[in-house]
Design brief:
alpha+beta, two-stranded parallel ribbon, 6 strands
Length: about 120
């Protein structure tokens, strides 16, 4: 296993390897050999392109940013209404839900005056 997919280019996006893969799996965090049975398959159907991520600008902690890029005290946004500046605009689906729930948890911790997990 070389850690590459020369036929289709899978596993070549740095941000996918970093945020969607298993960093302990090497040489590529999102690719692996299919060599141990049992094998299972299922039919995939294209149902849509996802949700645009181009809403209210926030920082990594869910604080809404003003036009100068500074947090607006007490104003937060999470989920699909937020423009995640970490990856710019783009399309997402289930990944956005998990990210939104995680950020909502962090925001609720901050609002409650509790320690925010690292």
């Amino acid at each position: 296993m070389q850690g590459t997919d020369p036929d289709f280019g899978r596993g070549t996006r740095d941000y996918i390897r970093r945020f969607a893969g298993d960093p302990s799996h090497q040489p590529n965090s999102v690719l692996g050999a299919v060599d141990t049975a049992p094998f299972f398959g299922f039919r995939l159907r294209f149902v849509g392109t996802g949700i645009g991520s181009s809403g209210i600008h926030i920082d990594g902690d869910g604080h809404v940013l003003d036009t100068l890029g500074l947090p607006i005290p007490g104003l937060y946004a999470v989920g699909s209404c937020a423009a995640y500046t970490t990856m710019g605009t783009g399309y997402n689906s289930g990944f956005a839900l998990g990210r939104g729930l995680t950020l909502a948890y962090q925001v609720s911790q901050e609002l409650a005056g509790l320690p925010v997990p690292p």
